[in-house]
Amino acid sequence: MLPFDLIQVHGYSATEAGLAFLPFTVILGLLSRWSGGLLDRFGARLPLVIGPIVAALGFALLALPGSSGSYWTTFFWPMAVAGFGMAISVAPLTATVLNAVDKRYIGIASGVNDAVATVASLLAVAVFGIAALTISDTALNRQLWSVQITAQVRSAMLLFPSVSLDSTEKITQSLAVGIRASMLLAAMLPVAGALVAALTVSPKPKPSS
């Protein structure tokens, strides 16, 4: 959803939209070894609770930008926060999955983990895409009905946005509303993951005296 938001709502080029992900990627790469140290110090449960909550905060921050503003004040900090949360989560999550089975089943566990992540990504694109489109359409219809125009003109504005600069702005604002709502929905998923981790992952055992 984020590249679509950057390109369609904020007017980024495809290259600029790709570069917008750099804080997320760089932070995730640089802190991966550090997050492995968290696993050794605290066990898996604490990072798998804190990390997703931080990532959820990043998604929630992505819901704040409207249809304007510079990258540094709208998307840089949310991407950095989301990257930090994912950096805390990834290594403990992988270790938890692989440690949950006997060594002879590690390959199967890794495959299942990858398959679940892939299916989840596909479902997320479909579900959040439908949610964003539905909310955007509702917001657009509400804006158009608030304007005193004929039904014929309203239909033309929906089918051919270029006929009116004002209608183009309304469509952009409506898309922003839908995407912001999908970001808030996305923020709920890592919170749910943190809750699952808190309830199902065993804490690190205390060292025996």
SSE arrangement, N to C: HHHHHHHHHH
Q: Unreliable segments (pLDDT under 50, ≥5 consecutive)?
A: none
CATH architecture assignment = Up-down Bundle
- What percent of the residues sit in helical stretches (DSSP H or I)? over 70%
Secondary structure: number of strands = 0
Main beta-sheet annotation: none
Work out the helix count: 10
Any idea how many domains? Answer: 1
CATH topology (fold) name: Growth Hormone, Chain: A
Structural class: mainly alpha
- Cα-atom Rg, whole angstroms? 21 Å
User: What's the CATH C level?
Assistant: Mainly Alpha
| Mean pLDDT, all residues | 84
- Shape estimate: elongated
Assess the beta-strand content as a share of residues. Answer: under 5%
**N-end to C-end Cα span:** 51 Å
Look at the structure and name the CATH superfamily. Answer: MFS general substrate transporter like domains
What does this entry look like structurally?
The protein is mainly α and 209 residues long. The protein has one domain: Growth Hormone, Chain: A (Up-down Bundle), CATH 1.20.1250.20. 79% of the residues lie in helices and 0% in strands. The protein is built from ten helices and no strands. Helix 8 runs antiparallel to helix 10. The longest helix has 40 residues. The mean pLDDT is 84.
